[in-house]
Specification:
- Helices cover 38% and strands 18% of the residues.
- It contains 20 helices and 21 strands.
- The strands form 5 sheets. It has a 6-stranded mixed β-sheet with strand order 8-13-12-11-9-10, with helices on both faces. The chain has a 6-stranded mixed β-sheet with strand order 16-21-20-19-17-18, sandwiched between helices.
- Helix 13 runs parallel beside helix 15, helix 15 runs parallel beside helix 16 and helix 18 packs parallel to helix 19.
């Protein structure tokens, strides 16, 4: 039995060959016999590393185009038997089972395969690994006696600890990582194959991308996880200078991205506490940003700026002017890209201001679902896309008809209002594509209207008012009329629509029903 237990075997079978040759050399130097197969065996033998082909262990040929290689009684027994159980050891010896003490395995590249455009179902299915997960699961279950490694980043640590003997704590840590690796892998396969938008059972796979400075408050910890193969700009956030991100910073950037992704023309938004305080379009990024800050310069202090066009020196000068003229600081700037001169300039404006880039913004949300976590679970919903298509359902309901310019402003306002926290009322400038007042996050729609109208002040006269849902009473219309609003766009559908329409007609206000609600929470 002593001779049997003295033999050391390591099974190496990896899709990602990074670092595998160096690891194999180290294992050989430590006295391990290496069992390998397929591409891994080829990579090792080409470097002069002696291996035992898996066929010599299983006594079966590699079959069915490689679908059957490592799945066998001999391989799984060698990984699974309990070395501390004398009966297991005796059985393994009598059955000529080789004790496999190290399993190094990562899986067929399913994630990479399905990321390819127009990938066929056949190709995707062929990249579903079966043998690899079987070995990894076996090694992870038997972690007290088997070291299982799924990440090349762990090779060096394993090499260093093997000489002294890997601790039980480290074995357990590697096993947990292996099970997470399998769960992540299987969740992608399930999602790819599922036809039901809301299946009975679902798992959400995430990969950590950022350790945050802190959570919503400094005493809370937080990290960002992104779904595999997402095209979200948040997955491409790169820090260029300044402060690290907190939970609120990330969610503010997200709120900003949602507000401006609906536009191709230069758009800018200033965000505080996940709510835009100013949104604007312009002929240039500079003009859009100047308008977004002007919309509510008081709230912009300590805010986050998000643009859908690159940051250049002219645009950066707006931030400097805001600081000089209004004593206003900006905490975070997130843009598709920034030129070197603008970056250096903004560093001189405020050293602690975080500057981040995120690349291209897709037209629509990148994921199948919007996810909202609740205590003990989460809610999934489909994204709120295709807002422009809903314009076809709009209906003019008042005697006074909106002008062509007013309709243009209404469409911009409707996009703006769709990404601001409900209840939302906004006042659009009469002619410019920018907000003049935003009332949001209120439990009363009339209160949101009061906030928006008060903020807009003199700019109310002749302007557009937009509501993300219907008016339950005519009070908001009456209030808008007193402030000089000339046109209103709202959902419609209240039992009191007739009262609102009558109030608009009385005061000569053009009103349009969208027949679509645009709540955002």
């Amino acid at each position: 039995m002593a001779d049997f237990q003295a033999k050391k075997y390591a099974l190496l079978s990896v899709s990602n060959k990074t670092g595998i040759v160096d690891l194999a050399k180290k294992l050989r130097a430590l006295g391990y016999s290496i069992i390998s197969t397929g591409g891994t065996a080829k990579a090792l033998t080409e470097q002069g590393i002696q291996i035992t082909p898996v066929q010599e262990i299983t006594n079966d040929p590699e079959s069915f185009d490689g679908r059957m290689k490592t799945i066998s009684f001999e391989i799984e027994s060698g990984i699974l038997f309990d070395r501390s159980n004398a009966s297991h050891v005796e059985q393994a010896k009598s059955l000529n089972i080789k004790p496999i003490d190290i399993v190094v395995c990562n899986l067929y590249p399913f994630e990479k395969t399905i990321a390819q455009k127009n990938v066929s179902l056949k190709n995707a299915v062929e990249n579903i690994d079966v043998g690899g997960p079987t070995m990894v699961r076996s090694g992870a279950k038997n972690f007290k006696h088997v070291v299982v490694v799924v990440d090349p980043a762990d090779y060096e640590t394993v090499e260093n600890e093997l000489e002294q003997g890997i601790s039980l704590a480290k074995r357990k840590e590697l096993a947990a990582k292996a099970f997470a690796h399998l769960s992540f892998y299987d969740s992608q396969i399930a999602k790819y194959l599922q036809n039901d938008v809301f299946p009975k059972v679902i798992t959400l796979a995430g990969r950590k991308t950022i350790d945050l400075r802190y959570g919503e408050n400094p005493h809370q910890k937080a990290a960002v996880y992104m779904y595999p193969n997402t095209s979200s700009p948040l997955a491409s956030l790169i820090k260029r200078t300044g402060r690290d991100l907190s939970h609120v910073n990330v969610t503010d950037i997200y709120a900003g991205l949602e507000s401006i992704r609906l536009f191709k023309t230069p758009a800018a938004v200033v965000v505080k506490h996940n709510s835009p305080c100013g949104i604007a379009l312009g002929s240039s990024a500079k003009e859009a940003l100047a308008r977004a800050i002007e919309a509510d310069a008081e709230s912009a202090f300590g805010g986050i700026i998000v643009l859908n066009h690159p940051m250049d020196m002219q645009t950066a000068s707006i931030i400097a002017s805001f600081k000089d003229e209004k004593r206003g600081n900006i905490d975070i700037v997130a843009v598709p890209s920034i030129d070197k001169a603008a970056l250096a300039f903004l560093q001189s404006v405020r050293k602690t201001m975080g500057i981040y880039t995120f690349g291209t913004i897709p037209d629509n949300a990148s994921d199948t679902y919007h996810t909202k976590y609740i205590d003990g679970g989460f809610i999934l919903q489909t994204p709120d896309n295709n807002i422009e298509e809903s314009f076809n359902d709009w209906k003019i309901v008042t005697e006074k008809k909106p002008t062509k310019k007013q309709l243009e402003q209404m469409k911009i306002a409707w996009k703006f209002v769709s990404r601001i926290k409900s209840n939302t009322i906004i006042v659009m400038d009469q002619k410019l594509p920018m907000t003049r007042g935003i009332g949001c996050g209120q439990t009363s729609r009339i209160r949101s209207a009061k906030i928006a109208l008060e903020q807009a002040g003199a700019f109310c006269k002749g302007s557009i008012l937009a509501s993300d849902s219907f008016f339950p009473f005519d009070d908001s219309v009456i209030l808008a009329a007193k402030s000089g609003i000339s046109a209103i766009v709202q959902q419609g559908g209240s039992i009191n629509d007739k009262l609102s329409i009558a109030a608009a007609d009385k005061h000569g206000i053009a009103m349009v029903f969208t027949n679509r609600r645009e709540f955002w929470h």
